[in-house]
Amino acid sequence: xxxxxxxxxxxGALTCIGHGRKGLWEGILRERSGITHISRFDTxxxxxxxxxxxxxxxxGNHFPPHKLKRIDRYAQFALVLSQQALDDAGxxxxxxxxxxxxGVSFGTALGGITTAxxxxxxxxxxxxxxxxxxxxxxxxxGSGHSNISIAYGARGYSTTNSxxxxxxxxxxxxxxxxxxxxKAQVMIAGAAEAPLAPLTxxxxxxxxxxxxxxxxxxxxxxxxxxxxxxxxxxxxxxxxILENLDHARARGAHIYAEVLGYTLNNDAFHMSxxxxxxxxxxxxxxxxxxxxxxxxDQIDYINAHASxxxxxxxxxxxxxxxxxxxxxxxxxxxxxxxxxxxxASGAIEAALCCLAIEHSHIPPTLNCHEPCExxxxxxxxxRLKGRSQPIKYALSNxxxxxxxxxxxxxxxxx
Length: 414
Fold this sequence. Notes:
Blueprint: E1 6-15, E2 18-19, H1 20-30, E3 36-37, E4 50-51, H2 65-68, H3 73-89, E5 102-107, H4 113-126, H5 135-138, H6 143-152, E6 158-161, H7 167-180, E7 186-193, H8 198-205, E8 236-244, H9 245-250, E9 257-266, H10 279-292, E10 301-303, H11 310-324, E11 330-332, H12 335-338, H13 345-359, E12 361-362, E13 387-388, E14 393-400, E15 404-411
Parallel strand pairs: 5-6, 5-7, 10-11, 10-14
Antiparallel strand pairs: 1-2, 1-8, 1-9, 3-4, 7-8, 9-15, 12-13, 14-15
């Protein structure tokens, strides 16, 4: 008996280059970075000065005042992303008609940490009476998927993972597995992050992992460029509606792509450094292709993790060359557009793989003017300008703190 096939039928996005499926793709086609100087707080104490802020998101346009008192910015993003994806999929779900065959798989590195940070500052200055009544419901990472389940009557498998910068990829991958294993017909999958607050920002600044660009924020994130100096923190997220293929066909859904493979592993090496030769990243790609029953030469496009950090971009490039050989598939790193929203980045990049397949277009690696030394002559890096070409199979890689590696493969539905 064959396993159920899993397809993507809806896409949502919140980024500094655009909102929703359409806004995200239009932002990609503009080929301009949305990264700006930080406006939320004073950056004088920090080396890093830039971020991917979403300044055109108005919570009051989405939620009534009584609801806003109980959900923080992270959960707001999660709920809006889910609604976007459900609308795009043409799939009406309501709490009045709950379904046990619909589940939620979400990801976040930090959850409601900035709400905790702001509330703690008030507590220190004003005492226990200043603690918001809903704080306990806002700060835990599971508030995202819990609010989604409540909003749409999703009574099936429901979870949030916190696998660092791979959280979004893991969320989509686990949703794929749940449907493939026959435990759900529909999964709302994605990730959100709202980390832009002084203490959280400072935690990454103090370990020198973020870009030191001060003059031109649109140049702050430079994946695979020889002059890259670190990642650019961002907020936002992405979401996908995954369905059993038979369920999607029965309702005449538009299908963006099929999910064909997924892997999660760990370097078991270091909390902030990858294995120097990328052994576990290679294994992540190898195992994902094996599950998809594909050869390396069948992959047309790789959306790389490419966070713009000196060490990790080089390690990822070496891993790709070692696995794919002297001639690699077309590769790009898209974080120069919208920054690095930590755990949410993999969900955005999964969406971009689906859209690249849909539109037969590869987004470019912005700001990569002088490729780093690990970019060998056969490394097909799409940089500065996008490339139109048919894409049958796309691979998305995400790597995170703690040695976490995860990969997904999407394929065009014939």
